[in-house]
């Protein structure tokens, strides 16, 4: 059924297929996804609680980590509850406006996550290359402003996606062959010229990702040069260890994200099931791994979590 407006017609709802080709295994596939989601939610809530309650962690690195944890909670929760409902309860239908909201949250907070990782790279650069000026350069005010810019960028850049799609007519086909609503998946259901939408999508993807990756790359090249000049081997190992966890987080976000983005547009020879799996990995694995990586590799957070778990602190 289509509803009509002044300039567009759209279905009342869409049908999300989940993981096409593995329908018979949906029930069992949901269990590892559920475990990963629970780990992501619990881990990021613990990170936020530890940083909020421990005033010694109210420093730029941990404030950015709190932003990352909050972004991961939103990003994973925007898709996983519906996906689990599809896999376990066959709740394939999603209302039209709920689908647009999901598109907005997925793309906006993916942009925010990329921006937060860029800000964390800048923080590491200042901490290692200008250690004596770190606290004066990255004040709490600067951190909040930088976080606000990253958030506003994500919201402003992505908002036109939903606006442009909402003004376009849809074909009778309302089946989305994956487990969540996504910009390119919706465009394939539009019965109109989508070149402007696709062009804007490419512009946003490359302007956000390219800018952030360039800043991250330059920051780590300067960090590497500064670390290699340190006289102490122990200091070099400590610096590499601090940056190593951040690089792992960056790779878990950008590798599956770029694969998903490129296969949507150019990877017509890639098996559809591979694309669907990577699309789900891209939205769930980073939120799950981030608190584990930082919780294990960051001594202050690790020690605080151990104390809380052992009942030594309230």
Description:
It is a single chain. The N and C termini lie far apart (55 Å). The longest helix has 34 residues, at 96-129. The protein has 11 helices and 5 strands, in the order E-E-E-H-H-H-E-H-H-H-E-H-H-H-H-H. Strand 1 (2-4) and strand 2 (9-11) form a beta hairpin. The chain has 314 residues and is mainly α. The strands form 2 sheets. Strands 4-3-5 form a 3-stranded mixed β-sheet. Strands 1-2 form a two-stranded antiparallel ribbon.
> Based on helices, strands and strand pairing, what is the structural class?
mainly alpha
What helical percentage do the residues reach? over 70%
Q: Which ranges are low-confidence, i.e. pLDDT below 50, for 5 or more consecutive residues?
A: none
Distance between the ends = 55 Å
Question: What order do the SSEs take from the amino end to the carboxyl end, as H and E?
Answer: EEEHHHEHHHEHHHHH
Number of strands: 5
Radius of gyration based on Cα positions: 21 Å
Give the oligomeric state of the chains in this entry, treating copies of one chain as homo and distinct chains as hetero.
single chain
Read across the widest sheet, the strand sequence of neighbours is 4-3-5
Overall body shape: globular
Largest sheet: 3 strands, mixed
Distinct helical segment count: 11
Mean pLDDT: 87
Strand content: under 5%
């Amino acid at each position: 059924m289509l509803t009509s407006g002044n300039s567009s017609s759209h279905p009342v709802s869409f049908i999300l297929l989940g993981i096409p080709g593995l329908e018979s295994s949906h029930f069992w596939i949901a269990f590892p996804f559920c475990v990963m989601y629970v780990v992501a939610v619990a881990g990021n809530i613990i990170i936020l609680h530890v940083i909020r309650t421990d005033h010694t962690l109210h420093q730029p690195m941990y404030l950015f980590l709190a932003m990352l944890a909050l972004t991961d909670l939103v990003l994973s929760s925007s898709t996983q509850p519906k996906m689990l409902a599809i896999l376990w309860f066959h709740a394939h239908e999603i209302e039209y406006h709920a689908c647009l909201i999901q598109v907005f949250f997925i793309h906006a907070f993916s942009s925010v996550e990329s921006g937060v990782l860029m800000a964390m790279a800048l923080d590491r650069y200042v901490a290692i290359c200008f250690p004596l000026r770190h606290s004066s350069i990255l004040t709490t005010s600067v951190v909040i402003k930088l976080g606000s810019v990253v958030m506003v960028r994500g919201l402003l850049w992505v908002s036109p996606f939903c606006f442009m799609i909402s003004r376009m007519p849809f074909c009778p086909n309302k089946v989305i062959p994956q487990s969540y609503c996504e910009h390119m998946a919706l465009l394939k259901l539009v019965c109109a010229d989508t070149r402007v939408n696709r062009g804007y999508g490419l512009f946003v993807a490359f302007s956000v990702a390219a800018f952030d990756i360039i800043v991250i790359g330059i920051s780590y090249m300067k960090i590497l040069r500064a670390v290699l000049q340190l006289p102490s081997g122990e200091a070099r190992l400590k610096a590499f260890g601090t940056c190593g966890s951040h690089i792992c987080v960056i790779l878990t976000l950008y590798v599956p994200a770029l694969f998903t983005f490129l296969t949507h547009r150019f990877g017509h020879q890639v098996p559809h099931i591979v694309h669907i799996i990577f699309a789900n990995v891209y939205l769930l694995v980073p939120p799950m791994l981030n608190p584990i990586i930082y919780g294990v590799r960051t001594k202050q957070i690790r020690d605080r979590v151990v104390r809380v778990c052992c009942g030594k602190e309230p």
